[in-house]
Amino acid sequence: MxxxxxxxxxxxxxxxxxxxxxxxxDFDGTLADIVEHPDAVSVPLPTREVLARLERSTQGALxxxxxxxxxxxxxxxxxxxxPVAGVHGLERRGAGGQMxxxxxxxxxxxxxxxxxxxxxxxxxxxxxxxxSGSLALHYRQRPDLGLACAAAVHEAVDGLQGLHILHGKMVxxxxxxxxxxxxxxxxxxxxxxFKGRVPLFAGDDVTDEDAFxxxxxxxxxxxxxxxxxxxxxxxxxxxxxxRMWLSRLADSxxxxxLSA
Length: 260
Ligand SMILES: [Mg+2]
What we know:
Layout: E1 6-7, E2 21-25, H1 45-57, E3 62-65, H2 70-77, E4 84-86, E5 91-93, E6 99-101, H3 106-122, E7 127-131, E8 134-138, H4 146-157, E9 163-167, E10 171-176, H5 181-189, E11 198-203, H6 209-217, E12 221-225, E13 234-236, H7 239-259
Parallel strand pairs: 1-13, 2-3, 2-11, 3-4, 11-12, 12-13
Antiparallel strand pairs: 4-5, 5-6, 7-8, 8-10, 9-10
Bound molecules: magnesium ion.
């Protein structure tokens, strides 16, 4: 693990070309600012325009890799409809629009949802979000309850099989152990138009670390947004700085495309 990722500003992206780069981006905390309620996020219009330009210049080698379901990403990025790996790779839509999903034990998550529902009912300001194959306990409105939430999740998961607990920013997620963001990146990299390109992955949270390591194996570029220990090679200070950098990458790719 790199102790000190290099500042992203020091990375000279002029060596990257739109035809040889595959771009993978986390959503929350990377493209969208973290806000109090997960439904209230938005991606600034200029950033959606940058994504559309990158999609064009890379000929579609741009994917979102997120903990959210695919349909939420479509809603936040509309009218863009990009390749997306949702729910940490449990569901995936490839560049051709083809869908794939890993099977999950729905009954396990129903049990878990019931247990944590009792906790959130007793602790206002916390909320459970259920997705297919994953569940999230949010406490953005009650940071003081972080430890109580962690204890509740560990207690609820006790005795249930095949689950992983992930501690994120003001959220604790429980997911089926059958997929990670690294699996999602690897699956995209096996398909056109990603195949054979250099992967670039940017993310802000613990679930992105698997993908940073996957990208390192492929001699790619990993970018951590914000503070915290990371395996990534580069660090961007915050979402604003990263969105600015992405905009300059789009400019650079268009220059390449024109001169190609
Ligand atoms: Mg994130």
